[in-house]
Design brief:
The protein is mainly α and 90 residues long. It has one domain. It contains two helices and no strands. α1 packs antiparallel against α2. The two termini are 26 Å apart.
């Protein structure tokens, strides 16, 4: 069951990463709205750009880890089911 617990934890980390990305996007929207027509270029300040890139990277890593651990949990369950199926009936 360790694999299942790890997969559940990875799913939770993915949810946290989604939340962090949403927070950064809200900050960017607030910045753009605050600047309004004063924005001469479509470039974000360096700190917002870095925060966005970091949040996107964190989300990608969390998604990859979730997929990996979900597959491990599924394979462990398949192996468990096979062991149970191979047990002699009493």
């Amino acid at each position: 069951m360790r694999e299942r617990d790890a997969a559940q934890e990875a799913a939770e980390l993915e949810r946290v990463a989604y939340t962090e990305l949403a927070t950064v996007k809200k900050e960017i929207r607030a910045y753009v709205l605050e600047q309004g027509s004063q924005m001469e270029t479509h470039e974000l300040p360096e700190n917002l750009q870095q925060a966005l890139e970091q949040a996107e990277n964190n989300l990608s890593a969390a998604q990859a880890k979730k997929v990996e651990l979900s597959e491990q949990a599924q394979n462990a369950r398949i192996a468990f089911n096979q062991v149970v199926a191979d047990l002699p009936l009493a």
